Amino acid sequence: MVKLSRYILILIAITGLAIALPKLYWIAFAQPIKSPFVQYSAVDHDFMILRNEGETVFTNTKGETFTREEYEARLPFVYTRQLLMNQTLPDSLNGEEMDPHQISKYRSIFRLKPEDIRAPQPSLFPLFESQSGRVNLEMPEDFFRITWRMEFINAQTNQINEEKSRMFSAVLYKRGFQFPATSINGIPTTLKSCDEGYLVVDSANQLFHIKMVEGKPFVRQVDLPEGLKFKTVQCTDNSDKLYYAYLFSEDKHLYMLTQYDYLLERFPVDNIDPEKHEIRIYGDLLNFNVSVLGEGFVRSHIFDRNLNPVDEYSENWPVQSQRKEGKIAAALFPVQLSMTDPNSEFINFYFQPSTTYYCFAASLLLAFVQFILIRKRKQKLLNQLPDILIICLTGIVGFLAVNFFPNKFFS
Amino acid sequence: MWKAMIYKEWLKIRWFTILYALLGMLAVGYLFLKVQHDTTFNQPNNYWNLILFKGLKFFSPLKFIPLAGGLLVAVAQYFPETVNKRIKLTFHLPFNENKVLLCMMGFGSCCLLAVYLILITLFSGIAAFYFPSNIILPALVSLIPWFLAGFSTYYLVALIVLEPVWKFRFLYLLVAATFIPLFFINGSTAAYQPVNITLAVLTVLLSISLLFSGYRFRKGEM
Predict the structure, then answer these.
(1) A122 and B192: CB-CB below 8 Å?
(2) Where is mean pLDDT largest: B3-17, B58-72, B91-105?
(3) pLDDT tens for each residue of A283-335
(4) Which of B187, B206, B210 is facing A345, going by the closest CB pair?
(5) ipTM value of the model?
(6) Res B6: pLDDT
(7) Window from A314-318, A355-359, A367-371, B180-184 with minimum mean pLDDT
(8) B186 in contact with A at a CB cutoff of 8 Å?
(9) Which of A4, A9, A411 to mutate to test the interface with B (most CBs of B within 10 A)?
């Protein structure tokens, strides 16, 4: 029992140190990795790349460098106001009139990080009045959840509003909604241009649009291709009012849901996985730019407004583990442990095993040091073998742990 | 004899436990007084919105309350044993020394658990007046690691207090300083959901760690 208590303490020490030591190492030695910022120029029909390598460099895929003014002139949909001020905004581009109001209307920016999806999700939402006749949206008095029925809970009294709950549940039931909801997606803030309610996935993977119009339920089922399941549905509030949401499917495809006619339009691109990579979608008067950003790479896919592919670009750069400081860390620590992950909001034990065999050399060296210490203390080697094994497996962390809790009495 | 053992432990920690339970209940009371105040000034629907979508943790005043309890009970229970090495008297009783230590540890754990259960019940009961289960359950998921930290602190402080050698006390303190923060990582509400079970298992395992210090004490390590 006492022996067991010692090994438990060693386990606790290894857990704590395997988190604390790599953390200290990275605080001391981490270097920023500056990833390039890639945008598409409809002027040059080429990608413009902004690099921060000591100084800011404006370049393109051919390696040509530009001044800031030249760079901005090639991205008229991004730097519209600057070009207007400089009076250098072109009158037309690729046959489209460059009306600042139109440019502004069709400009959209969407960003989705893995940590936005891999995070605890709320299960209670405010249902705004979509046609209140007021300019600004108002936070409703009640919040809804969709379990065995749709329930509205008044925040003032913390009681269920039975009448409203029955009314909405009945309409959902009539429209074929299979309770409970598996995901409820909307923009639960009053700081949006208008309310379009929620896109809700039910337990049969059907997609429904639910909103409140003049106090009454509006429920519309969206026709989906057979077997289509979504990883996440992300509602948008774009000023062009053409699409309700970006939808990311389980089979790593990206869709948009059109407003009013509820058509699913698929971007002709594969391997869009918001659970692993950051996704950015920039829309402008002429194009959509779907960018996928991962550790050490960026992929940009350009489509026209009809979603026909126009161009694509990708670039890789060394990730932290491939750089000098990463290789030293991999040699020092057979496993780096962390309670947080850049791609998740959840706290867990995240293991990052070493990518180099040098860590085994370091572990063996420490095991040899332990062996010398054992001989010096004139202890029986057989009793100390588990400690040697722990050091071989866990390196410096195990070496510290077994010596913090010495087993000099055990025989 | 075992009854007498437990009575001795109770004599050591009773006032500290009762005082801590009262202070803990006051903390829960303060927490909901603040909720009452904030809902009055912000409107309940805006307050719910802040909790659900803006990351407001209404329960955060309780963050270090369980840790304080673990620390207090451990010091109250084990510090007197180190004065003039009184624990050696216990080891001279006609009992298995490990059983004695586990009995002490078990009693301390039960007292702590009783106070924690009172606090959690009080928290959940009062919270039910203000919030639906959709807000209370994620809050409880976030509270669990803080209460586990209370138990872990109790076990590690007991280990440190009973350790006879100062050098090793320092090293154990270092281990505690790397382990206890794992329960207090800043994250969104319910972020601990996937790891709570693992942390609970580690905490339960840690409950027998006192045997190590006790063994060293018995063997006369100086």
Answers:
(1) no
(2) B58-72
(3) 999 999 999 999 999 999 999 999 999 999 999 998 888 889 999 999 889 88
(4) B187
(5) 0.91
(6) 82
(7) A355-359
(8) no
(9) A9
**Which residues of chain B lie closer than 8 angstroms to A401, CB-CB?**
175
- Residue B123 half-sphere exposure toward CB, CA atoms < 13 A: 27
What local confidence, expressed as pLDDT, does residue B97 receive? Answer: 74
Give the integer Cα–Cα distance in Å for B127 and A131: 34
List alpha helices for A111-231, DSSP H: 114-117, 162-174
Say how many residues make up chain B: 222
Q: In what order do the strands lie in the sheet with A150-154?
A: A125-126, A142-146, A150-154
Residue range B35-63: average pLDDT? Answer: 95
pLDDT tens column, B73-102: 999 998 887 776 676 667 677 777 778 888
Cβ contact A338:A23 at 8 Å: yes
When CB atoms are compared, the residue of A20, A158, A340 closest to B178 is A20
pLDDT band at B104 (very low <50, low <70, confident <90, very high): confident
| Per-residue pLDDT at A343 exceeds 90 | yes
Interface A-B, measured as beta-carbon pairs within 8 A, has a size of 135
- Cβ of B221 under 8 Å from any chain A Cβ? yes
Task: Determine contact, residues A17/A333, Cβ cutoff 8 Å.
Answer: no
CA distance A316 to chain B (A): 31
CB contact under 8 A, A12 and B179: yes
| CA dihedral sign, ordered B136, B142, B143, B145 | positive
Helices and strands: H and E segment counts in chain B: 9, 0
Edge-first strand order for the sheet with A46-53 is A37-41, A46-53, A55-60, A65-66
Bigger pLDDT: B20 vs B9: B20
A405 chain-B contacts, CB cut-off 8 A: 212
Q: How many CB atoms lie within 10 A of CB B62?
A: 22
Nearest CA in chain B to A337: B182
CB contact under 8 A, A346 and B215: no
Is B206's Cβ below 8 Å from some Cβ in A? Answer: yes
The domain segmentation of chain B, as residue ranges, is: 2-218
Q: Write the residue in A2, A12, A340 that is nearest to B98 by C-beta.
A: A2
C-alpha angle A342-A347-A351 in degrees, rounded to nearest 5: 70
What's the whole-number mean pLDDT along residues B115-135?
Answer: 97
* CB contact residues (below 8 A), chain B span 60-119, against chain A: 98
How much of chain A is in helix, strand and coil states, percent to nearest 5? 30, 30, 40
Which residues contact residue B77 at a Cβ distance below 8 angstroms, ignoring those fewer than 6 apart?
A: B9, B12, B13, B104, B108, B158
In this complex, do B178 and A155 lie within 8 Å of one another by their Cβ atoms? Answer: no
In this complex, the residue of A140, A339, A409 whose CB is nearest that of residue B219 is A409
d(CA A119, CA A145): 18
Asked which of A199-208, A257-266, A368-377, B136-145 is least confident by mean pLDDT, the reply is A368-377
What was the pLDDT predicted at B222? Answer: 55
CA terminus-to-terminus distance, chain B: 30
Average pLDDT for chain A: 92
